[in-house]
Design goal:
The complex is a heterodimer. By secondary structure, chain A is α/β, with parallel strands linked by helices. Chain A has helices at residues 3-23, 42-48, 50-56, 70-80, 94-100, 108-111, 151-156, 166-177, 195-202, 219-233, 245-251, 261-270, 307-318, 320-330, 337-340, 343-346, 349-358, 370-388, 392-403, and strands spanning 32-38, 59-65, 86-90, 137-144, 146-149, 256-259, 279-281, 291-300, 361-362. In chain A, strands 1, 2, 3, 4, 8 and 9 form a six-stranded mixed beta sheet that branches. Chain B has 14 helices and no strands. The chains are: A alpha/beta, B mainly alpha. The A-B interface holds A 3-4, 7, 10-11, 14, 18, 68, 71-72, 74-76, 78-79, 96, 99-102, 190, 238-244, 247-248, 253, 369, 372-373, 380, 383-384, 387-388 and B 1, 3, 6, 9-10, 12-13, 16, 39-40, 42-44, 47, 125, 128-132, 148, 150-151, 153, 236-237, 239-243, 255-259.
């Protein structure tokens, strides 16, 4: 009978391991706040909140969540009930996240002791849009799209100034790509579901009909499709999904592209030697020169055990001073009105372009699920035309069928 | 505890894991597939509604589902024979000698099977990259135009299958090698005395005696390819335009990216039935084979 204790031991060990798996939870008592920061900014975020920790004694643990796993992470957290204390939410995801009911409602009473979080302190559009009912988040960073261009390469091709209209951009891109050597003129990221919307705005149209639902079946959108597919037909843009936009810009393969302020940081970091050889300009226009107003908000997890600490951190992050420091650290634009008007920021040459563009920028229509449904249908239709030579009318009819009637208010 | 209980105690942990992570989820998927469970329903169960067979109707009307199903079929048709043939041939060659070089080779062939998929995706992503990938660099050295390894609708299927075959052979080589070692030397010697050629020995002695190993490899490989997920997930995310989306990846996207759990649950059950339908005849064939 000597096996008996040994056997029991094995079984006990196995059960213990199972139990350990089952109870593994993110640690952190009431004194620590876990914050989900999207992208690769978490280390810089921890530096940003050091003064907050010094003052309040609340430690902040920033967890980096890659942009392309945000949905899965959030879903898992909702399903398990194990979320962070605070999390960053991209504006395009806000309606879906808000509808999940997992976030704390930030009503008047909750925000009473934090006047800094009042909507009036923030840029219009971000604070009011896309919340769909109860307010569950406060603005954190703003973002808009501008034209990045390699001034040296444009000059070498005899182009003295960046394109002011999309027609001009198409001509410029043709000239640049025509130099040969595997070069392109512009870059259209295949995952960018906002560029076709910006192009529609430039044609003087919108993708929301008079009845407040999505409507792509308009002459302006048709002209935007002409532009989008025309860039591919001209062979001015790379047709590959794995084309790296920073690499392409730095190497000069794609000397123009449309992106947000964070790209300026990425370019400076990847190629400091390029300083002075590139610049930014307002988004190309047409009938209008409206760009995208995007950004991220911060929300508090509904079941957090440190609600007061989380609110204190939100208030700290909304302070103009913190927002300015964040631009210095991470090149992300403030959303606080006071910070955006601060001379420290406006004196920077790139920022003057961003600030000018922010004055003419609109958010995406607040559909229930932009990235997963409306935006995906839009991209699938356009990319099937340019990448797999699908019939244009069939593809667009498919898009209309998939999106018409989607509420956008 | 009676000694006869010991075997059960030993299989209990494995069985427990199988029940928890294999059988239970499938059982849960049945009721879930009849509801409209989504992100909101997950947070608050009172917001879940019963929708009957709606999810199945939607699924069969969804071109994305049929595309994923067709892709999975193509992947399995390409991948399963490739994995079986490549691992068997590699095992035969590795079996020829026991010296240090061959032992090192054996480890070499096994490395892809134990390398983390993230590292694999990084390396292959760079090899395949259109802009600065090694493969296109080699093509340009040979004076050929660049290929769009992960961008072309047809080529992308071959590219992901190639990586999966490369990853999938290692384990099967080991299984074949072990089976090869179990073949009694006398059979081969007798055949040799009768004047059988090398090929003849392989086809008349080795392959028939490896029947069980072949069956095992075939069944596990078929199941693995019907659940094909890792390679397209890390290399292409199913793109371009769903051309490399497998069934599992489609279900993952519907469930975890779009938050449509009821819909994904319906798809899961369909995939489960397909796998059961393909695998059961194989196992059944073995049973009659053993009875004979």
């Amino acid at each position: 009978m000597r096996e008996k204790p040994r056997l029991a031991l094995v079984v006990a060990a196995a059960l213990l391991m199972l139990a350990a798996c089952a109870t593994a939870t993110p640690g952190g008592g009431a004194a620590e706040l876990t914050v989900w920061i999207m992208g690769d900014s978490s280390a810089r975020f921890e530096r940003l909140v050091e003064p907050f920790t010094d003052r309040t004694g609340i430690a902040v643990d920033a967890v980096a969540i890659p942009w392309d796993t945000v949905d899965q992470k959030f879903t898992t957290a909702v399903a398990s009930g194990q979320g962070p204390d605070l999390l960053q939410i991209g504006l395009s995801k806000l309606p879906a996240f808000a509808a999940s009911g997992a976030l704390l409602t930030l009503d008047e009473r909750t925000l009473k002791s934090h006047p800094g979080l009042a909507a009036a302190n923030f840029l219009d559009g971000i604070a009011t849009s896309a919340t769909g009912g109860a307010r569950v988040s406060v603005p954190w960073v703003s973002d808009t799209r501008v034209l990045f261009y390699r001034s040296d390469l444009l000059a070498a091709a005899g182009l003295t100034r960046p394109p002011a209209t999309w027609d001009e951009l198409r001509t410029h891109a043709r000239t640049l790509a025509g130099q040969g050597g595997g070069r392109y003129g512009f870059h259209v990221p295949q995952w960018d579901n906002t560029l076709p919307v910006i192009m529609t705005w430039a044609q003087g149209g919108t993708i929301v009909g008079a009845d407040g639902t999505i409507d792509f079946d308009t002459p302006a959108f048709q002209r935007a499709v002409d532009l989008y597919t025309g860039l591919y037909a001209d062979r001015s843009v790379p047709p590959d999904a794995d084309f790296d936009q920073v690499q392409g810009f730095v190497s000069g393969t794609s000397p123009m592209l449309v992106s947000g302020p964070y790209l300026a940081g990425a370019i400076s970091e990847a190629a400091p030697q390029l300083a002075g050889k590139w610049s930014v300009a307002p988004i190309p226009g047409g009938a209008a020169r409206t760009s995208l107003l995007a950004g991220s908000n911060l929300g508090i997890w509904g079941t957090t055990d440190n609600r007061d600490g989380a609110l204190q951190l939100l208030a700290y992050l909304a302070q103009p001073r913190t927002q300015l420091t964040w631009y210095e650290l991470d090149a992300q634009l403030p959303v606080s009105r006071a910070a955006l008007a601060d001379p420290e920021l406006t004196s920077e040459p790139l920022v003057s372009v961003y600030a000018e563009q922010l004055r003419d920028a609109e958010p995406l229509p607040p559909v229930p699920n932009w990235d997963g449904e409306t935006g995906k249908a839009l991209l699938d239709a356009l990319n099937s035309i340019v990448l797999t030579a699908a019939n244009r009318d069939t593809a667009l009819r498919g898009l209309y069928a998939a999106t018409t009637g989607t509420p956008a208010t | 505890m009676k000694p006869s209980l010991a075997p059960y105690a030993f299989v209990a942990p494995a069985l427990l894991l199988l029940l928890t992570f294999g059988v239970l989820p499938i059982l849960v998927a049945v009721p879930v597939s009849l509801t409209d469970l989504n992100l909101a329903g997950l947070a608050d169960w009172s917001r879940i509604g019963f929708v009957g067979l709606d999810n199945y109707r939607r699924l069969f009307a969804d071109p994305g589902f049929w595309q994923a199903l067709a892709n999975t079929g193509i992947f399995a048709l390409l991948g399963v024979p490739a994995v079986i043939v490549v691992s068997f041939v590699a095992a035969l060659l590795l079996h020829r000698s026991e010296n240090r070089f061959f032992r090192a080779l054996r480890a070499f062939y096994f490395v892809p099977a134990v390398t983390a998929i993230v590292a694999v995706s990084l390396v292959w992503g760079y090899l395949y990259n259109t802009q600065f990938g090694l493969l296109n660099h080699l093509l340009s050295v040979a004076g050929l135009p660049p290929a769009r390894w992960l961008g072309d609708p047809v080529l992308v299927k071959l590219s992901v299958v190639f990586v999966a075959v490369w990853r999938g052979t290692g384990l099967n080589i080991i299984i074949f090698l072990a089976a090869l070692k179990a073949i009694p030397q006398e059979y081969l010697e007798a055949a040799e005395l009768d004047g059988a050629s090398g090929t003849r020995k392989i086809f008349s002695i080795v392959i028939p005696l490896l029947r069980f190993a072949f069956l095992f490899v075939a069944v596990t490989t078929v199941i693995g390819w019907l659940q094909f997920f890792d390679e397209p997930f890390v290399l292409t995310k199913g793109g371009p335009l769903g051309e490399s989306t497998s069934m599992s990846l489609f279900l993952y996207q519907e469930g975890f990216s779009a938050g449509e759990f009821g819909y994904a649950g319906a798809g899961t059950l369909v995939l489960f039935l397909i796998i059961a339908g393909v695998t059961l005849p194989q196992v059944r064939a073995r049973r009659t084979d053993a009875d004979r």
